[in-house]
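EI: anyone free to look at a 276-residue chain?
SC: sure, send it
EI:
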Amino acid sequence: MLASLRELLKEGYAVPAFNAYNVETVQAIIQAGEEVESPLIIQASESALEYAGLEEFAAYVLQAAKKTKIPVGFHLDHGKNLDTVKRCVKNGFTSIMFDGSSKTFDENVKASLQAKRIAGKIPIELEIGALAGKEDYIEEREARYTSPVDALRFYNLTKPDALAVSIGNSHGWSEKKLKLNFKLLKEIHEVIPAPLVLHGSSGVSDAQIRKAVKLGVMKINMDTQLRKAFTLALKKSLFENPDINPRVHLEKAREAVKKTCVERIKVCGSSWKAFK
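SC: here you go
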């Protein structure tokens, strides 16, 4: 069933937000949630929507979400174009993430408020502070940790339903083990009443993710791990099996993504929480 971001985010666990980009990844995410009865969020980046077709992809995800019994949100991930925000609102997304974190503080506030006006009653996630690494394999960004003072000022000016923060996390796959700044996270959590969001979790250890959940993180984004599982399984199937039916190989990729999603759901602590 379709669920709002406001309904999904609750204290005590984090809802996994999995990036999807084709039929198989959507199926895998929902199947994983059903297997361990977890609420979840299916999200898509602007580039994924451009690739799949925003209207067509939205129609498929919404139909799949409505058919399952577990609560599923449909979320725009890292929206930077206000026109994309408009199209997502028009096509039934249950929440929007607008990312103005690369802008100056004042520019971020201004653009975020514009996005919020477009979203209307639809919940919106905003971001303050910038993550290192590659975002959606397109753009290199320098890290800028979130200041608790700036976070509170930003929250008071924009009043988002969820706030993404930079505390040592990084987009994409990091070769080195990332170390989250829990002191900073605790300070932010103490002044921000909104649920906090952790982007770039692929290089973060399971133990750190569990600790972050205890310190106020209620939504965790996951993309790179799913891409890796899909691609490696697809390569292996194509290498080992000469069958020219693409469904044979895509099924293996779907199963690998599902397995990865189940593992990440358990780390988030959201398994068996769908009907509570």
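EI: The CA atoms of residues 249 and 255 lie 10 Å apart.
SC: 👍
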